[in-house]
Amino acid sequence: MKEKVEQVLNNIRPSLRADGGDVELVDVKEGVVSLRLKGACAGCPMSTMTLKNGIERILKQEISDIKEVVAV
Fold this sequence. Notes:
CATH topology: GMP Synthetase, Chain A, domain 3
Structural class: alpha+beta
Number of strands: 3
CATH superfamily: Fe-S cluster assembly (FSCA)
Distance between the termini: 19 Å
Number of domains: 1
Largest sheet: 3 strands, mixed
Helix content: 40-55%
Strand content: 25-35%
Number of helices: 2
Radius of gyration: 11 Å
Oligomer: single chain
Strand order of the largest sheet: 1-2-3
Order of helices and strands: HEEHE
């Protein structure tokens, strides 16, 4: 499961990096993906929207077992 999530994140990363940010996969347990936002994303007021409306939506589309994405 971690490998699948990492593959999807690799497709998302160029967009995050274009704005000076990045994302790190911390863990995947029981369908919950734990991510750490880095760079400009870490302090951005829009980071919650990026996480939920962007990253979570894409991960759920690509991997049906994903229930939620949380920031750590």
